[in-house]
Amino acid sequence: MILGIPIFFAITAFVSVIFIHELGHYLVGRACCIGASTFSIGFGPKLFSYTDRNNTEWMVCLIPLGGFVKFLTASDVAEILNKSEIEGTKQLPRYLKQ
Known about the structure:
By secondary structure, the protein is of the alpha+beta class. Helix content is 43%, strand content 32%.
């Protein structure tokens, strides 16, 4: 049991550093009006996820050895705009409003 405690704290510290690092990418992207479709901590199978009001999927995955932020590309934005025109919805995500 004693050996497990330092390992747990090391993993927690490592995941915290990863989260802060990836959050920096996410916030700078948002400040530059670039939408993000995915914010992930870890790799591999998804353990749980949450989609926020900006349609960003926040995920925690099984292997906590890194993370990533997937930003929207021009084709993703075009697809969102076409979908909103087809469905007749006027409500677009905030990062697409100019």
